[in-house]
Specification:
This protein has helices at residues 9-39, 54-67, 80-88, 114-130, 152-171, 179-203, 212-235, 239-250, 265-273, 275-288, 294-326, 452-467, and strands at 47-52, 72-77, 94-100, 103-108, 134-139, 351-352, 367-373, 383-388, 393-398, 404-408, 413-420, 427-433, 439-440, 443-445. By secondary structure, it is α/β, with parallel strands linked by helices. It folds into three domains: 47-139, D-Maltodextrin-Binding Protein, domain 2; 152-317, no CATH class; 351-467, Carboxypeptidase-like, regulatory domain (Immunoglobulin-like, Sandwich).
């Protein structure tokens, strides 16, 4: 006999609609506003420039302020060599120097993005013409011939960024993997992705052969995957919205697809903290600027990895406390990771577990129990079948020599546990599964010759438990 909790149909439909539409609506609004705001009519916002000679710096700064209010932050350097060095050290987007009465030079770096180079060249050409000067443009960090836009590194960065999030979503379904195994998988996959991407980029001539880029690519994929795994237990059903929001809606517009100096202030701030933007900057540094300014970007990527690891540790501590409260595990043991359902994918596959004291490296059961006979002796090889409320079989297993069984990867909500053994009356228990809480269901099977009254009493008792949400 099955008992179901009646819910008003209107409330149920409204709840389903809200849960269904929240994630796509949030993603829609994010994409609708972020990309147009970042990419529409890019123009300089506090781009750093250096000007040789303080007297020239004052005149140029005043002229640029009139043309582009708030567009440039201008500082003076001693001479043209210092201006060139500032661009190579990535302390400035461009350097300008007057080299004669009617001559001037502009130092730029196409590796920072062709659109930035073009905007700077156009602005300073007009400025030099106003002062009756001939402008010479010198590219101190040219890109390879196949990267005419200077944006190819962003495309490779996206290829290392988004799959890191997808890797995390698939690992959430690996209910037999503990945290250590998942982190090892992340490291192996990141190493493979970085190597393949680097070989493709170099082999097809999209960027120079600088093996240090492998480390940057590895850190990017690892940072995204590790942080995604760490945040999953905390954002729960909003995991797809959080992941796509972080790694697409916020990351791509601030990545450097449009040079960061041409982005609005909000996206410049995002660029400074998001893993994709920092990885792209680091790749540019190791490939075109002899490693200048790379340390800061590497530290940011390591910070994301550290934050993800800390979240995994916090979740482990939380489940450890819950296990201690249940009395199911000794405090000195490590608590393995319980399965985490990723709502962007199908329900995790229910899995039967070997029954013994749980150690680090083994998944935590969601359902466990034991089967005994009328004399309180364990029943070996009793069949244990777990079904959902619709009667669909989720998983089937058997008890061990001590009469024990355990299952993980089950969906939340009510389930039915059916236990049977040849020559004994079967029993059914209904249980309510909740996230992070292990449920226990023990059974006593009686011989058929004297089990009628006992079976009926057990079923009445179990249905009473079900009504109280046991």
């Amino acid at each position: 006999m099955k008992h179901r909790i009646a819910r008003p149909r209107g409330i149920s439909v409204a709840r389903v609609l809200v849960e269904t539409l929240t994630i796509p609506a949030g993603l829609f609004l994010g994409l609708l506003f972020s990309f147009p705001m970042a990419f529409h009519q890019p123009q300089p916002h506090h781009a750093k420039l250096v000007i040789a000679d303080p007297a020239v710096e004052y005149r140029v700064g005043t002229a640029l302020q009139r043309q582009h209010p708030g567009g440039f932050d201008v500082t003076a350097v001693p001479d043209a060599r210092a201006a060139r060095r500032a661009v190579l050290d990535r302390d400035a987007a461009a350097g300008f120097a007057v080299t004669g009465r009617h001559a001037a030079v502009l130092y730029v770096a196409k590796a920072n993005g062709a659109s930035l180079e073009q905007a700077l060249t156009k602005g300073f050409t007009q400025l030099a013409a106003h002062n009756h000067q001939k402008l010479t443009v010198t590219d101190v960090a040219p890109t390879v011939s196949k990267d005419g836009s200077g944006a190819t590194l962003v495309y490779f960065g996206i290829a290392w960024n988004v799959p890191g999030y997808i890797l995390a979503t698939t690992l959430l379904r690996a209910v037999t993997f503990n945290r250590r195994n998942k982190l090892i998988t992340v490291a192996c996959a990141a190493g493979l992705f970085s190597a393949v991407g680097f070989l493709v980029g170099v082999g097809l001539g999209f960027f120079p052969n600088a093996p240090t880029a492998l480390a940057i690519a590895f850190l990017l994929t690892t940072a995204v995957a590790t942080f995604s795994l760490g945040m999953a237990p905390f954002v729960k059903h909003f995991f797809p919205l959080a992941g796509l929001g972080l790694y697409v809606v916020l990351s791509v517009p601030s990545s450097g697809l449009v040079p960061v100096q041409l982005l609005p202030g909000f996206f410049q701030a995002l660029h400074a903290v998001m893993p994709l933007g920092n990885a792209v900057d680091a790749l540019r540094g190791v490939l075109y600027f002899d490693g200048a300014g790379v340390l800061k970007q590497v530290l940011v990527l390591c910070g994301w990895i550290t934050a993800g690891t800390a979240l995994l540790g916090l979740d482990a501590w939380h489940h450890h406390r819950m296990a201690v409260r249940r009395g199911a595990q000794d405090e000195t043991q490590d608590i393995p990771e319980p399965p985490v359902e990723d709502p962007s994918l199908e329900t995790p596959t229910p899995t039967a577990l070997p029954v013994h004291p749980h150690h680090f490296g083994e998944p935590l059961p969601m359902l466990e129990g034991a089967v005994y006979d009328g004399e309180e002796q364990p029943v070996r090889h009793a069949a244990v079948t777990v079904m959902d409320t619709g009667g669909r079989q989720l998983v089937r297993t058997t008890t061990n020599a001590r009469g024990e069984y355990a299952v993980t990867g089950l969906p939340e909500g009510y389930i039915s546990v059916v236990v049977s053994h040849p020559g004994r009356d079967p029993l059914v228990h209904q249980k309510l599964l909740q996230s992070g809480v292990a449920v226990r269901a023990d059974f006593t099977l009686h011989d058929r010759r004297n089990g009628t009254s006992v079976r009926a009493g057990a079923q009445r008792l179990d249905l009473g438990h079900a009504r109280h949400g046991s």
